[in-house]
Amino acid sequence: MTAGSGCRSDACPLVCTIVLNWNRPDATLSFLESLLPSVRSGATSLIICDNGSEDDSVRRFGDWAAGAIVPDRDDRSPSDWDVLLIRTPRNLGYAGGNNLGIRRALSRGFRYIWIVNNDVEVAPEALEALVECAERDASAMILGSTVLDFAARDTVQYAGGARYLAPFTMIRNPYRGMPVDRMRAATRPAKLDYVSGCAMFCRAEIFRSYGLLDERFFLYFEELDLAYRLPDPRSQLRWCPESLVFHHEGHSAGGRSAGNRTESARSSYHENLSALRLTRKHWPLYLPIAMLARLCGKSLAAVSNGRWHLLEPLMRAFLEFLKDPEGRHGSGSELAVTEEILSCRIRL
Asked: What would the mean pLDDT of 237-247 be, rounded to a whole number?
């Protein structure tokens, strides 16, 4: 097999899992441990995208792979790997970092690409259930798992995804906070406007047909943008109830729920900026009311919750949007990146 070519359909997994890391090796390693049985069994290949980390993340991922996955061969062809590490010289954001992995997965010819946050741990049968759901329903282009709270493990965060009220840039998630047993007893499947980006199982063909993640969204709303590029999102998005993942909400980006004020301010800035750019891109007629609703709503929430430090990033996001509404500046996908094969095994 020549370097860069795809692998035979009977020689590589159907799925490539992509996880993005930025200075959070502990969280990423917890995710990797939860996925390890699927990697060892050959159910999925794995791409770890390190987004310009300044700590010891890269070394620790190499150590993990060396201890967890014993290679069956020493000749490591660029076209035949089980675990691949991609390193960027700086943080490209969620879309930019994941796009590096998506491009590599597309070049290898996988049927499915599973994009998972590093603040997620997956249940043992989560991936198998997603593949079965996708194989049963050819019209399903993006599938979401049942996302449960990591601490309160019987409490629902997402039934695949949620609805989106575009004029007010608001998420409507009727299953949030519901006990999982009660959710399973629901008589109607969840109606989705998007699949949660914390665990997004995609047919590879959508990236070939509709493009990669839009790098103008540095953080947040990338999954909404991808869903609304599909011809008929509501009929092409699916919830796979049997696939369970557990989510430390907010930890992958530093978090709206994290205690660090600097990180929560950064998250607030990007959330507000991305919400405005999403509205301009897909619903430009809603933009005036969306801007007013978001400015008033977020300001009121910050003040009433005593989080005064979030007012500055909110104002900064609005000013940045007015200066650069389409976000055409600052894409970094042209940067030189390095690849390192961490595991490469013979497939019979």
From this structure: 95
* 220 burial level (CB within 10 Å; 0-12, 13-18, 19+): buried
In a domain, 97, yes or no: yes
- Output phi, psi for 33, to 5 deg: -65, -40
Q: Are residues 105 and 164 in the same domain?
A: yes
Q: Is residue 8 part of a domain?
A: no
* Domain hosting residue 98, numbered range: 15-252+333-343
If asked whether residues 137 and 247 sit together in one domain, one would say: yes
Whole-angstrom Cα distance, residue 118 to residue 26?
9
Angle of helix 126-136 relative to helix 25-40, nearest 10 degrees? 60
DSSP 8-state symbol, 285: G
Is the confidence at residue 142, as pLDDT, over 60?
yes
* pLDDT of 230 above 90: yes
Q: What is the mean pLDDT of residues 248-255?
A: 61
pLDDT digits 0-9 by tens, 80-127: 689 999 999 999 999 999 999 999 999 999 999 999 999 999 999 999
For the chain, give the percent of residues with pLDDT over 70.
87
CATH number, position 19:
3.90.550.60
Q: How far apart are CA 342 and CA 221, in angstroms?
A: 31
H-helix or E-strand containing 301? helix 287-304
Q: Are residues 248 and 157 in the same domain?
A: yes
193 within some domain: yes
Confidence of residue 346 (pLDDT cuts 50, 70, 90): very low
Tokens of 306: 């005593």
Shared-domain flag, residues 31 and 64: yes
Distance CA 196, CA 162 (A): 7
- Give the C-alpha separation, 44 to 32, whole Å: 12
Residues 245 and 205 in one domain: yes
For the chain, what's the residue count? 348
Q: Say how many domains are in the chain.
A: 2
d(CA 319, CA 30): 38
